[in-house]
Design brief:
Layout: H1 2-24, H2 34-37, E1 50-56, H3 62-73, E2 77-82, E3 87-93, H4 94-107, E4 112-128, E5 137-145, H5 151-160, E6 164-171, E7 180-188, H6 191-200, E8 204-211, H7 230-240, E9 245-256, E10 258-264, E11 267-275, E12 281-289, E13 299-308, E14 314-322, E15 325-337, E16 344-349
Antiparallel strand pairs: 1-3, 2-3, 4-9, 4-15, 4-16, 5-7, 5-8, 6-7, 10-11, 11-12, 12-13, 14-15
Length: 350
């Protein structure tokens, strides 16, 4: 009887211990590993649920993108940047991978500049007062000499021949066989008067002679000063004088942005138009003249950058030397919208 009682007590103790162990394991099923069951469940996916992707980056700097994704993923993804191939090697859970790929798709976009092209009609006037010496015609002559000539000799000879001298320069580097080149520019009443001057300059041979005409006449009504808006006519006449006339005119269309080169009277005009702030335009304009005789450099009449706007005239004043005579003038640019030209949108990837 005593042995039987002791056996019952031992069995009861073992049963009690088993119940306690079962409660401690959180009610795990029979046959579960007691060591694994004591670990709390992980909030991260096990290693078997991780995915690896190689993503090619087209536009966004791959090193900057990798740093950004690493910060956003908060350590829940592995990111390796390969700058040479411009690729990212990503390792993350399926859910986190979807988030990363969405970020890459939104950031890796081409930087597109959308620019609307506008077409304008230009009317450009070169306006000056007529020369006071209407009876004197401008000329340029290149002489070849065996020796240098003093400017005083030329000026004295010109005074006797009633010839006006505007420019005079000479150099022996122009000629061969140690000859001197002498360029004279001025005004003379006739070919005979100029011949008298050249006769007085001994030991000279004429290499080139050009008569010029620094006036501009046109039968095109739009080229006349009277074609300008009334208020603008008054302003120009007040600025230059009542006898102002057109000495150069150009009419044509140009896109914005755009540029053009074209003859305008005696000169060549170069214009470049760009979009400015708001409705303003930036107009770069240069007017120059190529010399029509050897060894004489080209001359620049004006070069300016101004703010412009459709419907508002642009006025740029200037003064120039015309074969010894100072001439005041103004360039007037009228900009009008070209409603006949289509409006286009240009996409540029930068």
């Amino acid at each position: 009887m005593k042995m039987h009682g002791l056996f019952v007590v031992i069995v009861a103790i073992l049963l009690a211990a088993g119940v306690a162990l079962s409660r401690q394991s959180g009610g795990s099923s029979e046959g579960a590993d007691p060591i694994q069951s004591t670990n709390p469940p992980s909030s991260r996916s096990p290693r078997g649920d991780l995915h690896t992707r190689i993503v090619s980056v087209k536009y966004y700097p791959v090193d900057e993108l990798s740093r950004l994704i690493r910060t956003l993923s908060q350590g829940e993804a592995s990111i390796v940047a390969n700058e040479r191939s411009n690729q990212l090697i990503l390792t993350a859970s399926e859910e986190r991978m979807k988030d990363i790929l969405q970020v890459i798709a939104e950031l890796d976009q081409a930087n597109v500049n959308v620019q609307q092209t506008q077409y304008l009609t230009y009317r450009v006037y070169m306006l000056e007062l007529p020369s006071k010496d209407q009876n004197l015609k401008p000329f340029s002559v290149l002489l070849e000499r065996s020796s240098q000539l003093s400017p005083g000799q030329v000026l004295n000879a010109a005074k006797e021949a009633n010839v006006q001298i505007g420019a005079l320069f000479q150099d022996n580097r122009w000629m061969e066989d140690d000859k001197w080149g002498l360029v004279i520019q001025g005004r003379a009443a006739s070919n005979d008067a100029l011949g008298q001057l050249l006769t007085k300059i001994s030991d000279s041979q004429v290499r080139e002679l050009r008569w010029d005409d620094d006036t501009f006449t046109s039968a095109v009504p739009a080229a006349q000063v009277s074609a300008l808006p009334g208020q603008l006519q008054e302003h120009i006449r007040k600025f230059l004088g009542a006898e102002v006339q057109t000495v150069g005119y150009w009419f044509g269309g140009l896109s914005v942005p755009g540029n053009v080169e074209a003859p305008i009277g005696l000169w060549k005009i170069e214009m470049k138009t760009q979009s400015g702030q708001g409705a303003n335009l930036v107009l770069e304009v240069r007017v120059s003249r190529e010399s029509h005789i050897q060894f004489v450099p080209s001359s620049q009449l004006l070069s300016n950058t101004v703010q412009a706007r459709v419907g508002r005239p642009v006025i740029v004043g200037y003064n120039r030397d015309s074969y010894g005579t100072r001439v005041m003038g103004a360039m007037v640019v009228l900009l009008e919208a070209d409603t006949t030209a289509p409006t286009t949108v240009e996409m540029k990837q930068q």
